[in-house]
Each structure stands twice: as structure tokens, then as C-alpha cells.
Amino acid sequence: MSCRYMAAVSSSLLRRSITLSPFNPLKPPNSIRLIQSSFQLPVRQCPRRAMSRVGATHDEEAAARAAATEADSGAPTIFDKIISKEIPSSIVYEDDKVLAFHDINPQAPVHVLVIPKLRDGLTELGKAEPRHEDILGHLLHASKIVAEKEGIVDGFRVVINSGASACQSVYHLHLHVLGGRQLKWPPG
Ligand code: 5GP
């Protein structure tokens, strides 16, 4: 069995952990249920929620590629509605520049997204320019504050998926802050 196959299977199982894992049992927390019941996302913007079989990784990749085709259109994303509070989210931290909220499809006991309130061309990290240095540093520091607030500052991971081949699905830069369990390396 190849490493690539193993990685694909592990990745898919990880993404399905909302129903399988001990930290995220059949009943998700109230905050998550509230968000899930409040609105529906187009699959294009949240492909991981549609995963229901091991081979679905291919669907996720296809959805990520589809999302990437509109990345530079300037169209608002679901995160704009979260920033404007049009769509509810479970906020962990907020200041004038960034917003941090629990991911709707957590991949670990703690899974928080940290986003800039102003996208300013930062659809993905791959579009970063020198003018973005301040906000990029601010986002990293905010991630540490989030880790403290969530009680995982002793061990956590910050992930940025940039572009379709990294399976980015929302084109508004975001940092995933993950922790609360033993994280494995390398990631899938
Ligand atoms: P990406 O795949 O682009 O790196 O990560 C996007 C993340 O946004 C995913 O982990 C997905 O679960 C999360 N997400 C997508 N839509 C929503 C939403 O409406 N609310 C919340 N809280 N998270 C979302």
C-alpha cells in the first residue's frame, strides 16, 4: 500500500472526524449546531462538509480547483458575511484588524480560523505583497492569542492552505489554529 494512498485515506478519515472522533462525538457543540442550522453553504465554498466516503478526497480537490477559478474575481466570500455578522459564528477573538472564530467543520478539538477583516487582495497567502507584512504578523500574533484563549498554547499548529493544490476552499486568507490532541506529522 503506497504512502500516497495511506495519506489520502488518513486525510479523508480526518476530515470525517466530525462524526467519528472522540473529541467530536455525534452531537457537535451547541455553537456549531447553531451555525449549521442557520444557513447552508454552497458546496464550492465548503467541500469538506460534503465528505461522506473515503474516496471523496478527489471531490474535495475538484471543488478546490473550482473555487480557485473564481479566486481573483473579487467576489465576496462567506467570510465577508461572517465579518459583517450577517452569518453567525462562534467568535474566539476580535480586534480592529482580525476576527477569529471556530471552524464549522473542526479537524481537532480546537480548530479556529483567524482572518483579516480587510481582505485587501489577500485571497490567498500566495498573493501576499510587501504591503501585507503588518497584517500577516498581526494574524500570527492573533493566532497565539487564540491558542492561549483556547488553552492550547503549549502545543498547537497554524496552517495556511494556499491555492487549489493545497485544497484551499475559501479565497479570503485564513489561518487554521489547530490543537487539543496529538497532531501528527507530516500532514496529508
Ligand atoms: P480552506 O479549505 O480554505 O483552507 O479552509 C476553509 C475553512 O473554512 C474550512 O475549514 C471550512 O470548514 C471553514 N468554513 C467554511 N465556511 C464556513 C462558515 O460558514 N463558517 C465557519 N465557521 N467555517 C467555515
TrEMBL record:
Which residue numbers does the motif Histidine triad motif cover? 172-176
InterPro entries assigned to the protein according to its UniProt record, in alphabetical order: Histidine_triad_CS, Histidine_triad_HIT, HIT-like, HIT-like_sf
> By its UniProt entry, which Gene3D superfamilies does this protein fall under?
HIT-like
State the source organism's domain of life. Eukaryota
Q: Where is the active site?
A: 174
One matching Pfam family is HIT
Q: Which GO terms describe its molecular function?
A: adenylylsulfatase activity
Which residues are in coiled coils?
Answer: none
The segment(s) forming the HIT domain are 78-188
Q: What is this protein called?
A: HIT domain-containing protein
Q: What species is this protein from? A: Ambrosia artemisiifolia (Common ragweed)
Q: Which lineage do the record's taxonomy fields give for this organism?
A: Eukaryota, Viridiplantae, Streptophyta, Embryophyta, Tracheophyta
